[in-house]
## 1
Amino acid sequence: MIEGLLGRKLGTLQIFDRHGTVVPVTVIEVGPCTVLQVKTKERDGYEAVQLGFGSRKRVNQPMKGHFKGLGSFRHLREFRVEDIGQWQVGQRVGAEVFEPGDLVDVSGISKGRGFAGVVKRHGFRGGPKTHGQSDRHRAPGSIGASADPGRVLKGLKMAGHMGAEKVTVRNLEVVDSDPARGVIMVKGSVPGAKDGLLRIRVARKQAVEPRVAARKADEPEEPQAEEAPAEEAEAEEAPTEEAKAEEAPAEEPQAEEPKAEEPPTEEAPTEEAEAEEPPAEEAPAEEPQAEETEDKKS
């Protein structure tokens, strides 16, 4: 994977995300960049590739030899790569390097503001507006003491040339990537004017994994997909309950078999005793009947 690419600022616009929220984005033309030179650790002391971007009309002879007939490039920059063995001279790379959700650092030359005063350049408040102060509204004020130290300290904020310097904006999110058209959209603003050269690199100081965090935030909720596993889980639990219900009767007979054998041995004598007792009570009842028959005969 390559560290970054060169691009050109096309302009700014607004788009709507899937949630209907307005997102301000900057459209950047990324590449195509052509590999002009491959630098190895054995020969150059570090591993990197030199990319060419843009075009120009006139090219001197030394640069023609360096371009090796691959084109007439206006801008040349070097980028570090992970595996130098995968890169060759003449290879082209473009917007397919970046995907939605990536975080990138964009560097460019800011717009020139010319000679600016301290209010515009450094945000000074200015002098008082009343009490006869008619010409001190945007003045810088005192710049130091007189005797000690007797000079103006270096680095003091004063009026001077503003802008036209390298500025880097960090951790901009890639909202959309279109490799077919060679453009990407990043959330927010980037330094420089329209058609200005930009250097887009993978963010170095990022707290979280960009692609994972962005995709989780944008993924819509799918209740149906979540309920399906729950129903499957219930369907899986049902057989276990039936299996337990089937196993329970199999265990009960084993526990009742010894109990079923014991009661007959204890109840048998009681039934015999009951069967013997009634005949003993009926015998005296038959004797009075016999006596009555004898009395009737007499």
Note: The helical segments are 41-44, 61-67, 118-122, 210-218, 223-297.
## 2
Amino acid sequence: MKIVVCIKEVLDVTFPFALDPQGLRPLEEDVFRRANPADCGAVEVALSIREKLGGEVVLLGYGPQRVESTLRDCLAMGADRAVRVWDERVDAGSQAKAHILARAVQALGADLVLCGARSLDEGSGETPAALAEFLGFAQVTAVTDLEIALDGKKATASRKLEKGRRVAIECPLPAVLALEEGVQQPRYAALSSLLEAKRAQVDLLDQERLGLDAAEVRRLDSLRRQVRRALPRPRPKKTFNLESGLTAEQRMELMMSGGARQSKSDLLEGSPQDVGRKLADILQEKVLKKS
């Protein structure tokens, strides 16, 4: 069984970065990149299937040469080889990218295609569905658990629904499965594997080798266009409620200081009779203070 895992390079948002004020894009000198977390989980699922049924795990990435570093990081987990798809003459959006990836999957002759359900940056989840459509494969999205039959002809996937519900879906292979993040925890690569992956060759499939029609790619890319780019709305500031028993002077003091004192709370412990007496004393004290 040949399993192709689609890998997308995304920004590592754990590191702060600055934005270009004109295009609102991250400045290249400030960003670090990594493999999409959901795609790393898909690699782990593919390796588990290979350990059980045998076969080959091929990593497939789209992008310029810097993507090879991300592919090598996943290659160190134990995948057999990595393939990069790219043509600098084509600025592909999600639909066009799915078309190009589909041609690459056809060239590789995959029996199963695994993807992350959504990427960390855009999070649209369009690519797996579009990829299955271009390939003519069955597809299951939001997969949280996966079992492949021993004969390698069908898959049984547990699909996430709303409100925590799950549904089991059986589909024939070949198929495209979009896996939710956290399906399986990606394994840590050994140092020897990391060093070996750094020396591994990453094959390149360009427009000529895939036989792509540039006009068709441009047509697919024109199906969706970016209207504008805007910063997210600022998070609302936490507000506080002033206690009703405060004087006007105390209210103004708290408002000028920018916060209010946290209300004190006491835990009443003991037998029901003791707790009742303590509660009565507290209520009586509060009433006496107000009067």
Note: The chain has nine helices and eleven strands.
